[in-house]
Amino acid sequence: MAGLVPWLDYASVLVFALTGALVASRAQLDLVGFIFFATLTGIGGGTVRDLVLGRDPVFWVQRPELILLTAGAAVVVFFTAHLFESRYNLIVWLDAFALAVAVPAGVGLALEAGVSPAVVVAMGVVTGTFGGLIRDVVGNELPMVLKQKELYVTAAFGGAVVAVALIGVGMPRPVALIFCGLIVIALRAGSLLLGWSLPTYKARPPRL
């Protein structure tokens, strides 16, 4: 468990950083703007998670190489983004994979902190969604978490709940985290490819 969670953090930071840099490319920013977006997106969810859990210092202060990782991702995207025909589709799918890594990372760290199952689920959702939310709000894009007819927060929530449930019945934590990630990517991919969604609220005339 102690060895798996840091690697999940590294992976989620890298992939989310790539999505942030791609958003910067859509806005036609300079290299510093790319690095800013990549770093903000890469560490955003994990920073909120650590602040809520009272972890001091937050994860990227303990591991400053993560900042170099986000900067490196930004530089790579700066010189290669023009090669992709649809950068938005690339953002969507990279974001889906990042979500599937970040949610188990958040769940794992919350479990290590010894918090209640409800908080473990919440930290999984926060870690998976807040980086992308910050990226889209700052980049003036419609946040993916708010798009109708798509499973996003639901995918994160479902994966986190499955992990907590599996651990509750005795499954080893690393195995439960793997299942968590698989559930997240399955739900997100099903939403994108097959149109899976939850019913949405429909306003009705008030009753007299």
Automatic annotation (TrEMBL):
Record-annotated membrane-spanning stretches: 6-24, 31-54, 66-84, 91-111, 117-138, 150-169, 175-198
Membrane topology type: Multi-pass membrane protein
Keyword DNA repair belongs to the record: no
Assigned keywords, A-Z: Cell membrane, Membrane, Transmembrane, Transmembrane helix
Localization, UniProt: Cell membrane
Major localization class: membrane
Domain Glycine transporter: 7-81, 93-166
Keyword hit for Cell inner membrane: no
Listed Pfam families: Gly_transporter
Coiled coil: none
UniProt name for this protein: Trimeric intracellular cation channel family protein
Source organism (scientific name): Paracoccus sediminis
InterPro entries reported for this sequence: Gly_transporter
Family named by the database record: Belongs to the UPF0126 family.
